[in-house]
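A brief tutorial aside. Many learners find it easier to grasp structure tokens once they have seen a single protein encoded end to end. The record that follows does exactly this for Transcriptional Regulator, AsnC family protein. Read the sequence first, then the structure, and try to relate runs of similar tokens to stretches of the chain.
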Amino acid sequence: MTLRLDDIDRKILSELQADASQSLDVIAGKVGSSKTPVWNRIRKMREAGVIGAQTVIVDAEKLGFEACFFVLIRTSEHEAHWQEKFLATLKARPEVMEAHRLAGEIDYILKVRVRNARAYDEFYQALISEVKIFNVTALLSMEEIKFTTELPLT
């Protein structure tokens, strides 16, 4: 089911992306509507899957997760059984913040957040002990220049 979004829906989504803790009254005022229609639009977007789970963004470094690695993975295995095991392994590892299957020379890229290099090595050792991998390259992020979860809707 595809949900058609109009300008008001996009404004509501932009407001929710910026701060989902805003009250319906505040959002309604910002988008030029009233509370009930805004609530109905949000409900429809949730039902259609446009809006997923609402969470809180925490500061990883303030919680001691000071190292962010981008892990490039090449595999010589492309069978369904290997892929199922690999994906299950990634999903079970809380350090993996994002995982993407790629086109090109690299098969997968992971964003891994850990406390330090030693913690990354523990993650790496566990990963290669669970799944056969042809090549792993880890790139340490020296500085996060931009981070957002907001899509440019308006």
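Self-check: The chain has two domains: 7-47, 61-140. If you spotted this yourself, you are ready for the next section.
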